[in-house]
Amino acid sequence: MNKNFDINKALSAFFKDTPSYCQPYGNGHINDTFLVVADKRYIMQRMNTDIFPCTEKLMENILGVTEHIRKKTAELHGDVSRSTLAVCPTLSGLPFFRDSDGNCWRVYEFTEGTVSLEAVRSKEDFYNCAEAFGRFQQLLSDYPAEELYSVIPNFHNTPVRYNNLINAIKKDTYGRLAEVSPEVDFVKARESFCHTLEHAFSEGTLPLRVTHNDTKLNNILFDEKSGEAICVIDLDTVMPGYSVNDFGDSIRFGANTAAEDETDLSKVSLDLDLFEAYAKGFIKGCGGKLTEKELELLPVGAMMMTLECGMRFLTDYLEGDVYFKTHRQCHNLDRARAQFALVADMERKKTQMDNIILKLKTEGRN
Fold it and tell me: Which of 341, 294, 297, 337 is nearest to 314 (CA)?
């Protein structure tokens, strides 16, 4: 992505009159984000075209799902104005602006009266986050997922991630293989498990859904007064996928008793209370749109996303730390080991997770 840009070029593409204020906003790592004040407040972003080169397709995805969410929210008599992101067109009516330097810009209306959270403050926060991502599934349950463009192909295709790791092992470009043999053995012992969701999809028991693919707490806007989850944001990675993976990635990150890169593996475990809180919120938010098979596979989704993330960290370590940012020696290896420790704890607690889902299903029917 071009490091040099003239933001005034972008402003003039979206605003007839020069805005009174434009400054960097937030702490995102992918796009450059600015708060703009004109007739009202807006969010302007310079999109990262290195990560998302197909800007037209990405914006088609966002326009499609946001328009659908507004339509469904109106049918349910909800607050359409705060139900999802609102894309503001350029003065010439286009969804984004490409400047003469190749930078791509977009503008959203600012969702007033909301805040985002960087960390879970309570079990209630985690529940509210889950309900919002579940509601996202509910509102898009009848959207034709196959029509969405896959902005990152095979992003959560775990067998592909497994094969990527095997290729990195074979090459051992940086001579790091000898020190990670326990981790390699751990993954190889779970090769068959890696295919679980893909097999279910190919057999027709796991449906293709519109998925968010970055289900972190800070991708939810909360009402600043009531604390209610208002809407899901950061829609760049919206594409076809499995609902259980969206669920699972939240569990992987939010229900872990330790940090993602914890080096004391005795601290790493699955918090079953947080798992239950999130599952309860997610299932409620989905509003009965999940199939029986999807409900059954929710714990598998948590295990799969944790294993997959660990494989990605390990692959990056073997390839010389070229993808994930690192802040210390062996950082990616530490991350991989923490993920694998969490997988092992999830395996020990699989029956308990299954029983929690069964209990929530039963409560939902009563």
Answer: 337
Q: Identify the pLDDT of residue 118.
A: 77
Distance CA 145, CA 65 (A): 10
pLDDT per position as a tens digit, 135-185: 999 999 999 999 999 999 999 999 999 999 999 999 999 999 999 999 999
- The pLDDT, as a whole number, for residue 365 is 62
Contact 296, 281 (CB under 8 A): no
Q: Cα(8)–Cα(44) distance, rounded to whole angstroms?
A: 12
Given a cut of 70, is residue 2 above it in pLDDT?
no
Token digits of residue 179: 């020190």
Residues 141, 78: Cα–Cα separation, whole Å? 17
Q: DSSP letter at 147?
A: G
Give the C-alpha separation, 222 to 38, whole Å: 24
| 8 A C-beta contact, residue 243 and residue 300 | no
pLDDT (tens digit, 9 = 90+) per residue, 82-123? Answer: 999 999 999 999 999 999 999 999 999 999 999 888 777 788
Separation between Cα atoms, residue 184 and residue 162, nearest integer Å: 11
221: which 2 tokens?
């806007």
Where are the alpha helices (H) located in the chain, listed in sequence order? 7-14, 55-75, 123-139, 158-171, 181-188, 196-202, 243-254, 272-286, 292-296, 298-318, 331-348, 350-365
Distance CA(250)–CA(206), nearest Å, equals 19
Separation of alpha carbons 301 and 187, rounded Å: 16
Backbone angles phi, psi at 232, to 5 degrees: -95, 135
- Planar angle of CA 81, 84, 89, nearest 5 degrees: 80
Burial 198-234 (b: 16+ CB within 10 A, else e): bebeeeeebbebbbbbbbbbbbbbbeeeeeebbbbbb
Please check the confidence at residue 366 and state whether its pLDDT lies above 60.
no
Chain-centroid distance of CA 290 in Å reads 19
Please give the Cα distance from 327 to 235 (Å, whole number): 27
